From TrEMBL:
Pathway(s) the chain acts in: Protein modification; protein glycosylation
MGAT4 A/B/C C-terminal domain residues: 285-413
The keyword Repressor appears for this protein: no
GO molecular function: acetylglucosaminyltransferase activity
Keywords, alphabetical: Glycosyltransferase, Transferase
Ranges for domain MGAT4 conserved region: 10-272
Taxonomic path: Eukaryota, Metazoa, Chordata, Craniata, Vertebrata
Name used for this protein in its record: Alpha-1,3-mannosyl-glycoprotein 4-beta-N-acetylglucosaminyltransferase C
GO BP terms in the entry: protein N-linked glycosylation
Database matches in InterPro entries: Glyco_transf_54, MGAT4, MGAT4_A/B/C_C
Pfam families, sorted: MGAT4_cons, MGAT4A_C
Length: 420
């Protein structure tokens, strides 16, 4: 939770200055492998790694990034690994391993390994012991904040976007394509952080133009609190109040041991899907319903890939949830899920899905005059493929129709449309 407060009076002047933090932090980086990138990429993936008492997952993480990317995707990514341990023998050993295993990625300019010498670090001993953390824990998390600040600072001009991973992460297949789809779907809307995992700081995506501010911010408050809490504050300070998190998750924690003292860390993201990641296209559309909407669980929430839903009070026969596409489309697949794990009875008990053509009405009240029924809901869900072979017209509308009144309320958790 983000209830851990930064003292606003004390820092109010620095918050105002946050917008001025466009310059980079003046430190020297050592290139341990690779050379400066010849051209700007779409996405930089940043990893920071230190020596662990038990288990080392860094090589597995790098392997997963490259293996789960197609040849075309590889052209658009850069991976920056920061070896942030002050033990030079460990760093040298890791560089050798990385250089042997991923030589062709280094030569292709996709992988860089860097290190920041200890002399550039601020004081790490005798820091404030917030939250009654033991001194070595405070030192560990404070240094980690500085590690990430230095890594972000290095990555400022490498690409359009930056995603933060840890050194013990598994990626889902074609994660870059999924990320691009999501970014495209958010065009024109303001965001600071998009989240592709619900764990810590795994899978947090930023605009590269925000990296200088974020780097300065982590340095400014490095001894105050752990990095993942600071990231929540940063997002809030830049006026993104809500979490924007996408499901299924693209990144999974694979480490069994934490980098802090080798403590066990069994955190797993249960929304992670390795293979079947297939983000729907959900083309632009107007959404409307004649159901009685509960609070702010409005119609639009069922049609987004964000983790939210539509919730209506007990629907009656003939009630509908309608989608009017901005342009006629060809559809290959449709999937609708109702109910949630917490409210398994708030499903559509009796319903059908229909697609329509021939639009009438003005901008606000547009609807189709002719509908074709594609099938019934089963156990609250609906899925159909090969729609383009079953429907011979270009589709203007889609609607979920309640075919029998129910006393339970209705949650439409997600509506997914794939175009052909």
């Amino acid at each position: 939770t983000a209830t851990h407060q930064l003292n606003p009076e004390r820092y109010v002047h620095t918050f105002k200055d946050l917008s001025n933090f466009s310059g980079s932090i003046n430190i020297s980086y050592r290139y341990l492998a690779g050379t400066p990138l010849p051209r700007k990429r779409y996405l930089t993936i940043g990893l920071s790694s230190v020596k662990r008492k038990k288990g080392n997952y860094l090589l597995e993480t790098i392997k997963s990034i490259f293996e789960q990317s197609s040849y075309d995707e590889l052209k658009e990514i850069a991976v920056v690994v920061q070896l942030a341990d002050f033990d030079s023998a460990w760093c040298e050993g890791m560089v050798q391993d990385i250089s042997q295993k991923f030589a062709h990625h280094i030569i292709a300019g996709r992988l860089i390994v860097i290190h920041v010498p200890e002399e550039y670090y601020p004081v790490l001993d005798g820091l404030k012991r917030n939250y009654n953390d033991p001194e070595d824990r405070v030192k560990f998390r404070s240094k980690q904040n500085v590690d990430y600040a230095f890594l972000l600072n290095f990555c400022v001009n490498l690409s359009d976007y930056y995603v933060m991973l840890e050194d013990d992460v598994r990626c889902s297949k074609n994660f870059l394509t999924a990320v691009k789809k999501v970014i495209t779907s958010r065009e024109g809307s303001y965001w600071v952080t998009l989240e592709f995992s619900k764990l810590g700081y795994i899978g947090k995506l930023y605009h590269s133009h925000d990296l200088p501010r974020l780097a300065h911010f982590l340095l400014m408050f490095y001894q105050e609190m752990p990095c993942d809490w600071l990231l929540i504050h940063f997002r809030g300070l830049l006026a993104q109040k809500e979490v924007i998190r996408f499901k299924p998750s693209l990144f999974q924690h694979m480490g069994y041991y934490s980098s802090y003292k080798g403590a066990e860390n069994k955190l797993k993201d249960d929304d992670f899907e390795e293979e079947s990641f297939d983000i729907p296209d959900n083309p632009p559309a107007n959404l409307h319903t004649n159901m009685n909407v509960f609070e702010n669980y409005e119609a639009s929430k069922a049609y987004s890939s964000i983790d939210e839903y539509f919730w209506g009070k007990a629907p009656s026969t003939g009630d509908f949830y309608g989608i009017v596409f901005e342009k006629p489309i060809k559809i290959s697949k449709i999937k609708v899920i109702t109910g949630t794990e917490d409210r398994q009875n708030d499903i559509l008990h009796h319903g059908a899905l229909e697609v329509g053509e021939k639009i009438v009405g003005s901008k606000k009240g547009r609807q189709c005059t002719t509908y074709l029924r594609l099938g019934e809901f089963k156990n609250g869900n609906f899925e159909i493929t090969d729609v383009e072979h079953k429907v011979l017209f270009d589709i203007n509308c889609m609607r979920i129709l309640v075919t029998k009144s129910q006393k339970e309320w209705l949650i439409i958790r997600s509506i997914s449309v794939w175009t052909s």
